[in-house]
Design brief:
Number of strands: 15
Organism: Gilvimarinus gilvus
Function: GTPase that associates with the 50S ribosomal subunit and may have a role during protein synthesis or ribosome biogenesis.
Largest sheet: 7 strands, mixed
Order of helices and strands: EHEHEHEHHHEHEEHHEHEEEHEHEEHEH
Pfam families: GTP-bdg_M, GTP-bdg_N, MMR_HSR1
Strand content: 15-25%
Radius of gyration: 29 Å
Structural class: alpha/beta
Number of helices: 14
Oligomer: single chain
Main location: cytoplasm
Family: Belongs to the TRAFAC class OBG-HflX-like GTPase superfamily. HflX GTPase family.
Length: 441
């Protein structure tokens, strides 16, 4: 954009090296899926191994010659590396190969640019692209250089490169300001939901694990869901009604990937904050994937990075229809749900997911027989409005006995609206968890 680079096309030669750096190696199969998701047409893949990357070309001179021959043979317009290249390595490779060179970060940015649909999503992608581009503003428009010595050659005191950097900084600042407004609006929405005691459940997981398909299955919506990496970029939130819990917000989030570039994590922080403020995380996992445990570890790393690692989490093992498995709930030693096995595509096991969510979010349920005097009709009406009354009977003294089951937060809100306190309630028998609840109230 700011300097002349070779044109790019879809015919691509892929490069994957095993670097002995101690870091978890990239998956070449996932790399090829990324290229296909970006619309590329892989014509060849070059494999190799090195102790350390070559300082000038990342690959050695022998591999560089092999790449030159492959590019010429297949008339490739693009060479993509499954690694992060430095700006100088990228420029040197383009000069040697006479075609466009892209690294893993640039490839993921390109996919994000294609997938973003909302205004917010496009802003976040542009911010990540500009931050990535700001490190590559070199050899820019030297033919327009005006800062020279001599009569008639003295320029305005700013080189073209400095101008480009200034323009980039201005645009980045403008986008950050807009995204800050988005964060503020989201925070206001979260505070409103907290005041209304509406819990938020966020779907997180590795890309292409089936989050959007599960979201559609739960909500009955038709958000975009495809068998491709990063099908979802824009967060989608819907209100659903769950038994014993009531209104709940379900949020679909962007998928994670191994070694997710920090530029993307920073740019999408406004979206990922939705997950960090959730009451419960549903970690959706592709149960049929060979690298299942590796994907789980990568998601856990990103959750820790965004500050969501300590939130309550329920693992959802999806795609059991590919394994011919029966749906089930896995529990810990205390009997609490820790994992659900289901198929979002067929809907098998969805009722078990609802059961597990209800158990995890409905831990603070108040259940018992409440005695109400005839003068407490407002409280009675609000309990019925909340569908908290399972049975009602009248006593000889004119009072009514209500069998209630209601979330503690909902009861707290109702009592506040009728100007009552918890210790003013009369129960038939022992009050439910009386001392603990009274402290919370």
């Amino acid at each position: 954009m700011f300097f002349d680079r070779p044109d790019s096309g879809e015919l691509a030669v892929l490069v994957h090296l095993d670097i002995s750096s101690g870091q978890e190696p990239e998956d070449p199969r996932e790399f090829e899926e990324l290229v296909l998701s970006a619309g590329g047409d892989p014509v060849a893949m070059v494999f190799g191994s090195r102790d350390t990357p070559h300082a000038k070309y990342f690959v050695g001179t022998g591999k560089l010659q092999e790449l030159q021959e492959l590019v010429e043979e297949h008339r490739a317009e693009l060479v993509i590396f499954n690694h992060t290249l430095s700006p100088s390595q990228e420029r040197n490779l383009e000069h040697a190969l006479k075609c466009r060179v892209l690294d893993r970060t640039g490839l993921i940015l390109d996919i994000f640019a294609q997938r973003a649909r909302t205004f917010e999503g496009k802003l976040q992608v542009e911010l990540a692209q500009l931050r990535h581009m700001s490190t590559r503003l070199v050899r820019g428009w030297t033919h327009l250089e005006r800062q020279k010595g001599g009569i008639g050659l003295r320029g305005p005191g700013e080189t073209q490169l400095e101008t480009d950097r200034r323009l980039l900084r201005g645009r980045i600042t403008s986008i950050e300001r807009r995204l800050q407004k988005v964060r503020t609006q989201r925070e206001q929405g979260r505070r409103s939901r907290q005041r209304a005691s509406i819990p938020t459940v966020s779907l997180v997981g590795y890309t292409n694990a089936g989050k959007s398909t599960l979201f559609n299955q739960i909500t009955g919506e038709d958000v975009y869901a495809q068998d491709q990496l990063f099908a979802t970029l824009d967060p989608t939130m819907r209100r659903v009604e769950l038994d014993d819990i009531g209104a709940t917000i379900l949020a679909d989030t962007v998928g994670f990937i191994s070694h997710l570039p920090h530029k993307l994590v920073e740019a999408f922080r406004a979206t990922l904050e939705e997950a960090t403020n959730s009451s419960l995380l549903l970690h959706v996992i592709d149960a049929a994937a060979d690298e299942r445990m590796h994907y789980i570890e990568q998601v856990e790393e990103v959750l820790d990075e965004i500050g969501a690692g300590e939130l309550p989490q329920l693992r959802v093992f999806n795609k059991i229809d590919l394994l011919n498995m029966e749906p089930r709930i896995d529990r810990d030693d205390d009997g609490n749900p820790i994992a659900v096995w289901l198929s979002a595509q067929t809907g098998v096991g969805i009722e078990l997911l609802f059961e597990a969510i209800t158990e995890l979010l409905g831990e603070e349920m108040i259940e018992g027989d409440l005695i109400l005097a005839p003068t407490e009709g407002r409280l009675r009406a609000k309990l019925f409005e909340q569908h908290a009354v399972a049975e009602e009977a009248y006593r000889e003294d004119g009072c009514s006995r209500l069998s209630v089951r209601i979330p503690q937060s909902d009861l707290k809100r109702i009592l506040s609206s009728v100007d009552m306190k918890f210790d003013q309630l009369r129960w038939d028998g022992e009050a439910p968890e009386e001392h603990q609840i009274a402290q919370n109230f």
